Amino acid sequence: MPRVLTESDVADFRDRLCEVAEQLFAERGPEAVTMRQLASALGVSPMTPYRYFKDKDDILAAVRTAGFDRFAEALEVAYAQPGDARARGAAVGEAYVTFAFEHPQTYKLMFDMYQPNEADYPELARSANRARATMSQYVRSLVESGHLVGDPVRIGEMFWATTHGCIVLEMVGKLPPGGARKLIAEVIPAISRGLRPTA
Questions:
Q1: Given a cut of 80, is residue 117 above it in pLDDT?
Q2: Is the model's pLDDT at 135 over the cut of 90?
Q3: d(C-alpha 38, C-alpha 33), whole Å
Q4: Tell me, what's the pLDDT at 1?
Q5: Among the listed ranges 16-25, 113-122, 155-164, 166-175, which one has the minimum average pLDDT value?
Q6: 104 and 23 Cβ atoms separated by less than 8 Å
Q7: What is the spatial distance between Cα 197 and Cα 149, in angstroms, rounded to a whole number?
Q8: Is residue 2 predicted with pLDDT exceeding 70?
Q9: Which of the four CATH numbers 1.10.10.60, 1.10.760.10, 1.10.390.10, 1.10.357.10 does domain 63-193 have?
Q10: Phi and psi for 87 in degrees, rounded to 5?
Q11: Which string of DSSP letters, residue by residue, matches the chain?
């Protein structure tokens, strides 16, 4: 008679499966990874993953959800640091870059991978929206304190696009190691100068 799985057993296996999936998805792309390969990497039968996830898209959504939540938490912790709006904004920017380079596989899956039927995964939508909100929250503080003028969400998207682009350029070898941080440190202030209140 099969052992009855506890909630802890289920959670532990799901976490292990997601950890293996994250690595394989990032290395090969989700389309090149099969459920059988995931099972083999864990040393379980080919049907075992189906006891925990509906299919491969379900696993990808779980991996990306966890990634967005960890990313958002890192930005939220940075934003909660003491200091004025500019200091907290700088802390959020540094936390963003640090997360990307300390967790490149996670970052790639979060932002560079397509999620089929994303609307079918409300937890993924929630975590992605949480991360997106953290990328405009600090900008809202800069606008409210008079350092910048404009729509905080739109400005946050501009900073996000710039930061992401620099990070990806370094990740694919188009910028030298450390080049993303250097370029971000030059471009973000240049953008900010155009968004400052006029005298």
A1: no
A2: no
A3: 8
A4: 47
A5: 113-122
A6: no
A7: 6
A8: no
A9: 1.10.357.10
A10: -65, -40
A11: -PPPPPHHHHHHHHHHHHHHHHHHHHHH-GGG--HHHHHHHHTS-TTGGGGT-SSHHHHHHHHHHHHHHHHHHHHHHHHTSSS-HHHHHHHHHHHHHHHHHHSHHHHHHHHHS--TTGGG-HHHHHHHHHHHHHHHHHHHHHHHTTS--S-HHHHHHHHHHHHHHHHHHHHTTSS-TTHHHHHHHHHHHHHHHTTSPP-
pTM for the full predicted model: 0.88
Dump pLDDT digits (tens) for 59-88.
999 999 999 999 999 999 999 999 999 999
- Are 171 and 115 in contact by the 8 Å Cβ rule? The answer is no
**How far apart (Å, rounded) are the C-alpha atoms in residues 69 and 130?**
7
- Domain 1-53 superfamily per CATH: Homeodomain-like (1.10.10.60)
Asked whether residue 90 carries a pLDDT value surpassing 80, the answer given is yes
